[in-house]
Amino acid sequence: MKARRLPLVFLVFISFSSIAQSDMLKKESPAISAKMDEQGSHSVLDSSAITSAMVSSYTPGKAIASPAADRPIDKQATKETVNLYRNLKKLLNKGIMFGHQDDLAYGVGWKYIRGKSDVKEVTGDYPAVFGWELGRLETDQAVNIDSVPFDKMKGFIAGSYNKGGVITVSWHLNNPLTGKTSWDPAPGTVASILPGGEKHVLYKSWLDKVATFITDLKGKNGEMIPVIFRPFHELNGNWFWWGEKYCTPDEYKQLYRFTVSYLRDTKNLHNLLYAYNTDRFGSKEEYLEKYPGDEWTDVIGFDIYQRQKGEAGNAQFVKDTGKMLAMLEEIATERNKIPALTEFGFGQVPDSTWWTNVLWKALEKHKISYALAWRNAGAKPSGENEYYLPYKGQVSEEDFRRFYKLPLTLFQKEVTKEKIYK
Ligand code: BMA
């Protein structure tokens, strides 16, 4: 296994110059660049003379230190972003960071109470990872798809960063072709926003707004706050317009690569790590079907929700999640990426020992960076009561405290000590 992995790491290093060349080419000649993509010439294995010379001089079994192995895909990533990347890897040996979407904004039965968090109410500590959502930023709304004001969100993000927490951002962006929501899978939408498509200019204007938001995220010394950006998630499901049936693998890859390249190379944002994120999957091949390539992602993950209650549902969740985590870990090791459970939950947590008896059983054998629980929305206008974490008095509250105390679950206090941006 080890001997087979070494050449890959090595190739990532020696392909730096060719990636830089292809990035330059992309700016100067999009047509030639598109052709190169089609032929796979932007991939790690390029055929330049220098690459083949270095490949042929490689001696199997000889360890080669690779600076590329320890860096984000963005060669100009800021110091804090590189430090975050390295510490996410380092912490894989220490435990799994616990994350929560919208943790500081609201919980079950409350909204915008300074310092409040359902996780804090139950455990006395905040999560280590904070998820936020950008949907509706693209249409110039003051509040996001879940009514969180963007200006408040910026304050929450800065506050968590200053305490040493990890920030990740998702984006349920509207359908740029129809003007409806993310859940409007009109055929041809992805194609319409790629270079040359009728909505490409509109899509770029949306990315400009994302870039403006990201640029506003600054730490105490004016440094840009590193963010794990997680666009076009659950790509193998059929509910979003970028979903499985609604674009080809090539279109998805082009969309992902264009998005990274635009934010990084055109907008010059160097504080982002990029997460590639499927829904449930059955094999490594399925997971990688639309994978944009090792030079386009830093974090790899998947989302999973338990739907079935009772013993059978629990057993199935442990089995399925464990299998997927094992495959994810293998892929992460082979490709030198950071594995994470990018979203999870069991709606209303109806099982009093779900945390230690079900979720932890699925996670405990795996080295993943973090697991992000979805949002404690509480009663929604639709009448649905949506939450995935206990609050005071909820049936799994006691067990969540046991989960918190496990040596391998990491929350804010522990992560603050690690000084992950330094
Ligand atoms: C879904 C639900 C929705 C929400 C959306 C985007 O899973 O929580 O209520 O609008 O995520 O955050």
Bound molecules: beta-D-mannopyranose
CATH homologous superfamily placement:
Glycosidases
Task: Please indicate the count of domains.
Answer: 1
Largest sheet: 8 strands, parallel, barrel
The CATH topology is given as: TIM Barrel
CATH top-level class: Alpha Beta
Q: How many distinct beta strands?
A: 13
For the largest beta sheet, what order do the strands appear in spatially? Answer: 1-4-5-6-7-8-9-10
Please give a handful of descriptors for the protein shown.
alpha/beta; TIM Barrel; eight-stranded parallel β-barrel; 15 helices; 41% helix; disordered N terminus; binds beta-D-mannopyranose
What does this structure look like?
The protein is α/β, with parallel strands linked by helices and 422 residues long. It has one domain: Glycosidases (TIM Barrel, Alpha-Beta Barrel). The chain contains 15 helices and 13 strands. It has an eight-stranded parallel beta barrel. Helix 2 (16-28) crosses helix 3 (30-38), helix 12 (310-335) runs parallel beside helix 13 (354-363) and helix 13 (354-363) runs parallel beside helix 14. Beta-D-mannopyranose is lined by residues 133, 145-146, 172, 374-375, 377, 386. Beta-D-mannopyranose binds next to loops.
